[in-house]
Amino acid sequence: MGDPVPLLYTGFLLFLIGQMTVAGRQIQQELSRTALYADLALTDPLTGLPNRRSLERRLEAHYVGQVRAPRTGARTGPPASPLGVLMIDIDLFKQVNDTHGHEVGDRVLVALGQTLRSCARAGDLVSRWGGEEFLLLAPGDRARLTRIGGRIQQALAGQAWPETLPRVTVSIGAALSEESSDAAGLLDLADRRLYRAKHTGRARMNMDPAETLHGTDGLHTKSGRAGSHAPAGLTHRPPAVELTASS
After folding, report:
1. Cα(171)–Cα(115) distance, integer angstroms
2. Phi, psi angles (nearest 5°) of residue 243
3. 114 φ, ψ to 5°?
4. Region entry Disordered: which residue ranges (predicted)?
5. What is the C-alpha to C-alpha distance for residues 90 and 112, in angstroms, rounded to an integer?
6. 133-165 tens-digit pLDDT
7. 62-101 pLDDT per residue, tens
8. Is 234:208 a contact under the CB 8 Å cutoff?
9. Which of 132, 133, 211, 242 is catalytic?
10. What is the CATH T-level fold of the domain 52-213, as seen in this structure?
């Protein structure tokens, strides 16, 4: 008759291994659930795009490492690589909801999100900022932002959307990270340029020099912040892309 001790020892080891396997599986499941919840917290449920919180994190991270000078408030850290933001707003979107209903309006938002994704490149981030407003973050300079804005307008002009969806246009306000010392200022500048694009006819992108946007005489943005009034001799105005009367 064999010694029972090795058998008991072996059985105990197998029991421990089984318990560890179960515990490991439970931990893995919990980690997966945590990751899923974190992902959902950063995703817009309608369009599947990153949401406002996700974009704010990315934008704030861009300015991290640049310390403000005590007196001037200027960033003194190593210069960050150029980053541009395009604030994109559907023109006359309320009319879409009023005429076709909110279900169709939601489908337009989803379709626009897909269009913006198709116009983005590796390293860009497309997010739904809220309502009918989207943001696109893109590394690069003024020329690259202009190209992206052009791609978006052209894609919408030629978009083969389902017949049940109304055609829409967008207005875009663009700004570069070098034009602001922080994320809030960059977004504010893009927002004011977006309003300027709306005010000058819609279906266009505005990236007027920052100095033309300082000082107001009665214009306000949708968010209630003071907007801009560019000089009468405004020269920088990308060509409008006119679509249908329903836009």
Report:
1. 15
2. -110, -125
3. -65, -40
4. 207-247
5. 9
6. 999 999 999 999 999 999 999 999 987 777 778
7. 888 665 555 555 555 556 688 999 999 999 999 999 999 9
8. yes
9. 132
10. Alpha-Beta Plaits (3.30.70)
